[in-house]
Each structure stands twice: as C-alpha cells, then as structure tokens.
Design a protein that fits this description.
single chain; 113 residues; alpha+beta; 33% helix; BolA/IbaG_stress_morph_reg; BolA-like_sf; BolA protein; BolA
Length: 113
Amino acid sequence: MLVHTAIEQKLLSAFDPVFLDVVNESHMHSVAPGSQSHFKVVIVTDAFNGMRLLNRHRAVNAIVAEELAEKIHALALHTYTPGEWYEYYAEKPPASPKCFGGSKREKTALPES
C-alpha cells in the first residue's frame, strides 16, 4: 500500500474529517524520484474542538505512528476545527516552505577572518 493511501485511510477512519488533504511533498526535497518520505496533511475535523494545537498534532501522530516510525521522514501538520478552517483557509490552504536541505542548499562562502 502506498504511504499516502495508508495515511489518508487512517485519518479518515479516526477523525471523520470534513476536509482532508494528504500531499506527498517528497519531490520538493533531496530524495530519489518517486519517494514517499515527506508529507503535508491538512485536516479539518470537529474532533479538534477544544483541543490545543500540540494535542491535535499528538493525536494525528498517534494515528500514523507506524508510518512515522518506518517510512516518513517529515510530516507537516495543519490541523483545524471547521470554524477555524472556514474563517481562515477554506479558499487557500497554507503552503509548505521550500526545502533548502541536502544538495539543494544554496552554497555561500564563509567570510575570511
């Protein structure tokens, strides 16, 4: 099973979200073509009502713990209640920052002493 599919199925089952977007962002990083190691999850669910951000992230991480331990290098989480989502992001979900790690890092010369 694809990592993307496993994440999506587990989150759908656990949270019954009103919106879920699981994006493989591996191509934005210094990894082999076709990799499944860097993901962004945007999830909107009533289950997050009354939860602090840290607890939302812990809840998602607990559901995808197997993938985090064995397959995923990075997981960007955007967790919202329906009210937050519709107020701030419904028209345009948050974008992930560009990766400058590995071979894509810009080379800069160190100043001479």
